[in-house]
């Protein structure tokens, strides 16, 4: 079995993005599955194009995209992606869409193709704060999640896939009083557990 895990480059003036830092530290094999790691640009449209190329080349059984959600205090496993991009800030190439449809022939929304509640339960059982989230926002994270699920719907019906948001790292909140954070070690552990649950769920189908 092959699992693709993606993280984003830094954006919004941050020097690091915990998503790609955590992805880079994942083991190359988890629960017997080969782990493919990739960095995605924090750019509307280009992010989906890069993901589509990797999906075509690697043909993973499971794809989990990971992104930073500053302000959240736990690992958030996303339930749904919506067919709209609305940037609160410009992306890394200066583009800031307003109420823009992602795919004209796409559904209004797609639900994650991951055992999201099993993942959250396993994380919480292992004392890692986690939750099911019902909004991935309208920035590049939702954009990429929607692109992934659109591609699964149109081209890869047997692929499992979804999106996980993670908090800031401690070094990112030094100048942000009262902002929650999570250590990189704990994030890596949490993503590893999420992958284990997804792989075991996929194997039991």
Distance between termini? 13 Å
Give the strand line-up of the largest sheet. 2-3-1-4-9-5-8
CATH topology: Aminopeptidase
* CATH architectural designation: 3-Layer(aba) Sandwich
Helix content: 25-40%
CATH superfamily: Peptidase C15, pyroglutamyl peptidase I-like
CATH level 1 class label: Alpha Beta
Q: Average the pLDDT over all residues and give the rounded result.
A: 97
Q: Which regions have little confidence, pLDDT < 50, spanning 5+ residues?
A: none
* Strands, count: 9
Helix segment tally: 5
Question: Which geometry do the CA atoms define?
Answer: globular
Using only CA atoms, what is the Rg?
A: 16 Å
Taken together, the total number of domains comes to: 1
Class derived from helix and strand content: alpha/beta
Topology order in helix (H) and strand (E) letters: EHEEHEEEEHEHEH
The profile of the biggest β sheet is: 7 strands, mixed
Tell me the β content: 15-25%
